[in-house]
Design goal:
12% strand; alpha/beta; binds glutamic acid; Arc Repressor Mutant, subunit A; four-stranded mixed β-sheet
């Protein structure tokens, strides 16, 4: 077989040579140990929480080593590409604090190692593919869909491993005449890699996360260029990561199964392999069983979920870090106020078997993060969330900023700040009773109290409420009201003989709380009343009476 002739017959229009391309991609000048990583999504418009998990790993490895983190768009599958897919990726990751040094930008490229969209790199892939043909390492396959299906059916019936290998690789040893004949008929073909692997051979491979693993050689002649001359993921991966100088490939562990093929490709192309970090999948507990978080079943699989629910970006970052590095939480406890970037991220502390995603834990982290913010910050974040998601609430917040900030100040600062807000979307409910047009009576005073007793207590409060009283005097007044109405003012005394009273001062406070806030639970009632102002307080008490 004259491989040079075959190469010309198959790709007559490809004139460039690998050396021409190599010359366009000089070696990167970087400090010793600098890592070059890339985030390489398909622009499908959907970003999975697993993508962020990977992107954080890429970003941290590059930026803690003085390296480069770039964005490559894997848009070889036109069917999966959406028009604004790239801006969705860039904007969404930016929201989560992930910024690229180089790569695809919304309207083009930023960097010297592009083009960063695979759809613009056809000539590059074809150049290397043509070289493989010249070297006898790739060949055309003219099988039709029906023929491939017949092969699959036969393999299934005989319980054989599926794939294009051995006796099933029907075009592997075709003659130039057979190929020429098909080309004359204008038959379409794919280009396949000629595998020299044997599944009886195992090799050791060192993965940066999984450590030493055994992999089985690949014997399948996989497709490297599709019939339209566009590469498969595998081929594009080898060519791009080589040319773009990637030192560390961080990708989901589902790619491990095709790693043996990638090892062959790098070797056949004469490229040095990058290091690989195969990340464990993000799992969740479902009825006690662990399973992959699914785009179809779990709303929390989508990154947009965290934004629309109003999780602070810092909380999501913080939480993902606890999933990514097993020593992060310990570090956080020792360094509560340190910048997250100061943490020494390492692949050595990454989970090998799967990271269990737990929304409750994220909520707890989120509450902690928000509890450390000032009221002003909480106001700004809530407002910007509301402006995108709840225009009515945004208007309310803007109508009196000082009032809103005072509400959000309750229990803030100090050693033990309140931790009751986890999401911006929950702030509305949290503050609703401060606004007459949002106020609703959620709880009622329990039936076991005599209505006339409740009314008597509330009326007494109404008569005596002094907005200017200090908290101690205000409470002394409530105790007095309790005492005058048969409710024990002293809890200790009450516990000794509850039957002797209609109730206690705690019950009196509860009547007031329900009357004023419409709820059994609220922040400190004195502060609440101070913020609401006398008119509102008395109007609500009157209503309850
Ligand atoms: N486009 C591939 C994906 O989205 C990239 C995998 C990789 O990072 O190599 O899964």
């Amino acid at each position: 077989m004259d491989n040079n002739l075959l190469a010309e017959l198959l790709y007559p229009n490809v004139k460039t040579l690998p050396a021409d391309i190599e010359a366009r991609y000089p070696k990167r000048e970087l400090p010793e140990g600098a890592k070059v990583t890339r985030f390489a999504p398909s622009p499908t418009g959907f970003l999975h929480i697993g993508n962020l998990y990977g992107a954080f790993t890429d970003e941290r490895l590059a930026h803690t080593s003085g390296g480069v983190f770039y964005l490559r768009i894997e848009d070889t599958d036109a069917k999966r590409t959406v028009p604004n897919g790239i801006s969705i990726i860039i904007e969404t990751l930016k929201k989560f604090g992930v910024n690229f040094d180089e790569g695809a930008v919304i309207d083009g490229d930023n960097g010297a190692y592009g083009p960063y969209r695979q759809s613009e790199r056809a000539e590059i892939y074809q150049t290397f593919a043509k070289q493989l043909i010249r070297e006898g390492k790739a060949y055309p396959c003219f099988c039709t869909e029906a023929e491939l299906e017949a092969i699959r059916n036969k393999q299934e019936a005989e319980k054989l491993t599926p794939g294009y290998y051995g006796e099933f690789a029907v075009w592997r040893d075709a003659s130039l005449e057979q190929i020429q004949e098909k080309l004359n008929e204008n038959a379409s073909f794919v280009l396949r890699f000629r595998s020299e692997g044997n599944i009886n051979n195992k090799l050791k491979f060192n993965d940066q996360i999984k450590g030493d693993i055994d992999v089985t050689e690949n014997d399948v002649d996989h497709v490297i260029l599709k019939s339209d001359g566009i590469p498969t993921y595998h081929f594009a991966h080898a060519v791009d990561d080589h040319l773009m100088g990637t030192t560390h490939v961080i990708r989901d562990e589902s790619w491990l199964s095709t790693l043996p093929f990638h090892i062959q490709l790098f070797k056949a192309l004469g490229f040095k392999m990058p290091k690989y970090c195969h990340t464990a999948q993000v799992l969740k507990l479902d009825n006690g069983n662990k399973r992959k978080i699914s785009k179809r079943k779990d709303p929390e699989a989508a990154l947009t979920y965290y934004h629309s629910q109003g999780y602070p970006v810092e909380a999501v970052r913080e939480y993902l870090m606890t999933l990514l590095n097993s020593n992060f939480e310990e570090w956080r406890i020792a360094n509560p106020n340190a910048d997250i970037e100061e943490f020494k991220f390492t692949t050595k502390k990454m989970s090998v078997s799967g990271s269990l995603f737990d929304l409750d834990k994220l909520n707890d982290i989120s509450k902690n993060v928000i509890s450390r913010m000032t009221a002003e910050e909480v106001y700004e974040y809530t407002l910007s969330w509301a402006e995108e998601n709840d225009a009515e609430f945004a208007d309310i917040l803007k109508s009196d900023k000082d009032y809103a900030v005072r509400i959000l100040s309750i229990g803030r600062g100090g050693k033990k700040p309140r931790k009751d807000i986890a999401l911006w979307s929950k702030v509305k409910n949290y503050v609703s009773f401060f606004y007459d047009n949002l106020f609703q009576r959620v709880d009622t005073i329990p039936e076991n109290f005599d209505k006339s007793d409740v009314s008597a207590v509330l009326s007494a409060f109404k008569e005596s409420y002094d907005e200017n009283a200090e908290q101690n005097d205000w409470f002394a007044n409530i105790k007095e009201i309790a005492n005058n109405n048969g409710f024990c003012p002293d809890m200790k005394l009450y516990k000794q003989d509850p039957a002797a009273f209609k109730g206690s001062v705690a019950d009196v406070s509860m009547f007031l709380r329900v009357a004023v806030t419409g709820r059994m639970n609220s922040p400190d009632l004195y502060e609440v009343m101070q913020i609401l102002g006398k008119d509102r307080v008395l109007a609500r008490v009157t209503k309850e009476i």
